[in-house]
Design a protein that fits this description.
Blueprint lengths: L1 H16 L25 H4 L17 H10 L10 H25 L8 H35 L2 E5 L6 E5 L2 H47 L16 E3 L2 E3 L9 H4 L1 H11 L9 H6 L6 H4 L1
Antiparallel strand pairs: 1-2, 3-4
Helix pairs in contact: 3-5, 4-5, 5-6
GO cellular component, one term: plastid
Subcellular location: Plastid
Main location: plastid
Length: 293
Amino acid sequence: MQQAMQHRCVGRLGQSMAPRLVSRPPTVGRVVIARGSPEKSSTDEMKGGLDPYLEVAVPKDQRPVNQLAELKQDPLYSWGSLEQGEYLKRLAGVYAFFFAFIGGPIAYQTFEPTEQPLEWFLSGTTGALVVVAVVVIRIYLGWSYVGERLLSAAVPYEETGWYDGEMFVKPPEVLMRDRLLGTYEVKPVLAKLRSTLLGSAGVLLATSVLLFGLIRAGSDADGMYGRGAARVPRQVLADGVLYSSRVTDLNQLATDDEAAAAEAEAQGSVPGYCGDRALRAFAGGQYCSKFDR
């Protein structure tokens, strides 16, 4: 009986020390396979974003998310993502530069700043604002293009050139990410650029209308204004030009000393024909240098 007890204890001890086989469920993993891509990606590539192989078919420089990053780093297009104050400073710098070196000098050829400061300023401002509007339009087109690609469910791309274009349908993960970027990053920039365009268009229209009204009000009888305009008021007769309202006929100057003095004062000691381009050309433009100044 003692031997039987020993055999039982040894049997139980052997069973407890024998290795036990436990069946475990296989590890379930998510592997995303894209066309022309490996079956898995490295851990480093998976950190901080989506699986890069979801977009492996599209070249890196044509992926909307990368194009958005390029916009933010571009010297010009990055203006759209700046804060409102810094953004307006950049545009003001463009306006000041083109007014000082292009718009102002061109306006000076027509308007004398000391005698016609408002006309000179409005003329130079009109030209500078046109340049500002062109710059904003260029920035808007770039952001609008990238925004459309971000919000679209499918985007065209080129593998090597224009002759092998393809259409990439975004996976759900990529589409969700792109639409979030397009909604919360691109759309606010486009709204700001549209407001700038509307504001610059309104200011440009106002300056143009005001300048046009000043020119029409101050134009001479021939429609000329500025440095090339004749002195007004004046009377262009068949045989000459009169400037004094007291004189109605050139023959009156030969018999009336007071009328002659009034006419001389009105002419500013400059021959009367200098105020009319046709008579001035006929006389050869002599003695008109003082009138030109």
